[in-house]
Request: fold
Amino acid sequence: MIYVYILLAVLAVLLAWYLIALIWGKPWSVKGLFMRTFLRFALKGPELLTMLGVLEKMGLHGHNAKLSDASVAYETRQLEMIKRDLRILRSYKRERQPPPIQLSIEVMDWFLGDIVRGERFRFHDYPLNQMFGIQSELPNFMMTLHPVVSKLEARNYVKRLSKFGIKFDQVLEGLKIREQKGVIPPKFVIRRVLDEMTAFVGKPATENPLYTTFKEKLEKLEKVGQAGREKLLAAAAGEITRTVYPAYETLIAYFTELEGKATTDDGVWKLPDGEAYYAHCLRSNTSTDYTPEQVHEAGLKEVARIEAEMAAILKKQGHTEVLNPTRVLHDLGKEARFLYPNTEEGRAACLADYQSILDEMNAALDPILAVRPRAKLRVERVPEFREKTSAGAYYMPGDMGGARPGVFYANLRDMKETHKFGMKTLAYHEGIPGHHFQLSIAQELRGVPFFRRLLPFTAYAEGWALYAEKLARGLGMYTDDPYGELGCLDAELFRAVRLVVDTGIHYKKWSREKAIEYMQAHSAQDHDSVVSEVERYIVMPGQACAYKIGMLKMVELRDKAEELLGDRFDVRQFHDVVLKNGSLPLAILEQVVEDYIDRARAG
Reply:
């Protein structure tokens, strides 16, 4: 019997040793490090846990009563953890790992390494701006992602409202550090944010979307009686008045004072070490080592090529004088045949047509795509309170549990902005086979570390979505639809123009006005939309370059595979390679495709 006790004691020591190494030291296996690093990100981020929607299926709901920590101290601890885990990751002998694990190591190394490389610029961004920030993202998170599906989760909603003040104070701390370092947003950014926040608090609590959306969701809870609903609504209104509005007022007061210190210089070149910061932004967003000059020149070349294609199509349609194809398309966009009525009926018809476009594409994909996601897709209108400053469209992934479908949000604030000849391309980009397919397939991957199902690499994700637009042309989705094809080319041109404008603002020191002038000359969009786009690039340096750079790389890799494989090239296999490895930095994607080519050539 004593031997049994000795054996149990040894097993206990070994288990303790394993757990200590797994939690604090170097895990015995690199898979343990994958799991630990991911869990450190996820478990300390209750908002991310809510978005994933996994713990609720296990009966765990406590995270839905909390908000993620946005303090400088927390960010510092996260950075130290990342640097430590990166050192440990690099200590494993990669050559001893099987190829799938080697790929995961490369992906995590790039991801963690990018964060570490960016540490010197951690206070160079603008956390609150007209595109995103706590002032718009937190209410949107509450209204669209917090699951009000039970009385418990309704109470958690109210508890989260009570924590707005804490989170806003944490963000304000970081804003003040940026101000001390000379990182102040351009004057127009501050004004846009002030207008947005002032409008948000400029109504009674019971008219605020945080309250009205909550009320709509409560009415669908059959197990909560009228008295219970009224009690929850009163609690929500109380927190909005007592906590949410004062949190906004604090930021409004700060930004009002900050506005007097802001300048009209727009590029990040104006910031301390600004040129190096922009080079980092380009590398981080495109996952390449392209210089700003290379990106700028690539943009100019693509703009010329695409405009020539557009001019040729327009001439075939009888437009004899095509000095500027985008201006012709701009004028066509004002014709009634390409517009919906600016009414609720027009908006409903537009959403229905988007759904038909997606259904048609979904039925046409078999010749080029073998892999399909299980997740469903819905088309919805951008929430009205976000319409004014929101992009023309965006995609929100479904949860990993399968309860919430992916949603393609279309901005219908003004139906004169929605041109029928551009709808197919937008639906393909945001929905099928674009973001919805790529992100859902990644979430549903099996046999890979969990972090591989979630990591976002902008150039890959946006590159695939833009590549998906190009696939539609190859499938014949624009046969007998020349204006739809023009819309497709205009969308591609739009991304090429971004390369020029983004680098123009942040590298060549263009003014906001010069950037608007260039984009207006090479875009079919209305002036207001062009202004909104340019202002987006100002607060998100490098991000807009990821789309076209990602697409160009995917087209390059496909052309290379076709050339080297000849008759053995199978486009479905190529797309399997691109999609079934999840999101990848472009440099790693290139290596993955080259490995596929080598295997295919070897038979």
Q: What stands out?
A: The radius of gyration is 25 Å.
